[in-house]
Amino acid sequence: MSKKSEKLFQSQTILSGIINTAEDAIISVDSNQQILLFNQGAEKIFCYSAEEVLGKHLSMLLPEAFRSVHITHVNNFGKSGVISRRMQERSEISGQRKNGSSFPAEANISQVEIDGRQIFTAILRDVSEQKLIENKLRESLKEKEILLQEVNHRVKNNLQVILSLFALQGESINDPERIAMLSEIRLRIQS
Questions:
Q1: Distances in Å between the alpha carbon of 79 and those of 39, 73, 82, 86, 153?
Q2: When comparing pLDDT for 61 and 186, which is higher?
Q3: Which residues partner with 121 through β-bridges?
Q4: Is 46 in contact with 97 (CB distance < 8 Å)?
Q5: Which string of DSSP letters, residue by residue, matches 52-115?
Q6: Does the structure show a pLDDT above 80 at 100?
Q7: How many CB atoms lie within 10 A of CB 109?
Q8: What angle do CA 177, 180, 185 make, to 5 degrees?
Q9: Does the pLDDT at position 90 exceed 60?
Q10: Are the CB atoms for 103 and 97 separated by under 8 Å?
Q11: What region does 121 belong to: left with phi over 0, alpha with psi -120 to 50, or beta?
């Protein structure tokens, strides 16, 4: 084996190792969207083995509602001349597991031409846990806002009771100095 061949083999081995051990799904398809590459990260996320999906159409990994839009999106991306981009221009990216369940995802797509063939590669990450955490944070924030509104309401009510008590007290006092002092306290409470 020549040095050049040996270096090429080492380079391919390193690249293959990196792709296979990545936690994110790495999926490559041809221009007909037939699956060419399906790494171990994709196996974990989609619950298919590589053998089950290689050579099949990418649509099997997408919820029905997104299939036609996705095909159009990839075709338009192929014609755009852009090499790589995030797929978040779409409202939401979803994947479909082997059991039929859908999950939210974020993805990057790239394209390259190899021996006259257009190859698309998506690097996809399941963001289900992130979405759950975001929803819990939103709910918690909403609860805190409601609690703050309730506390604010109760404080206002209590201050109104105090103002009313000062007003009643002021009616029974004839001393102008005390009346002025009560008025000043009432103004401070109102502010």
A1: 26, 10, 8, 16, 59
A2: 61
A3: 28, 110
A4: yes
A5: HHTTSBGGGGS-HHHHHHHHHHHHHHHHH---EEESTTSS-EEEE-TTS-EEEEEEEEEEEEET
A6: yes
A7: 21
A8: 125
A9: no
A10: yes
A11: beta
Q: Give the predicted TM-score (pTM) of the model.
A: 0.68
Predicted confidence (pLDDT) at residue 104 exceeds the cutoff of 60: yes
CA distance 18 to 16: 5
Q: Which two tokens stand for residue 128?
A: 């289900």
Segment 11-41, tens digit of pLDDT = 788 878 888 778 899 999 999 999 999 999 9
Q: Which residues lie across from 122 on neighbouring strands?
A: 27, 109
Three-class secondary structure of residue 2 per DSSP:
coil
8 A C-beta contact, residue 104 and residue 92: yes
Indicate the burial class of 33 (C-beta count within 10 angstroms; 0-12, 13-18, 19 or more).
Answer: middle
For residue 159, what are its two tokens? Answer: 């201050």
Q: How confident is the model at residue 101 (pLDDT cuts 50, 70, 90)?
A: very high
Nearest to 76 by CA among 126, 118, 26, 34: 118
Q: Quick check: 107 and 124 in contact, CB under 8 A?
A: yes
Per-residue pLDDT tens for 125-143? Answer: 999 888 889 889 999 999 9
Tokens 């399941």 sit on residue = 126
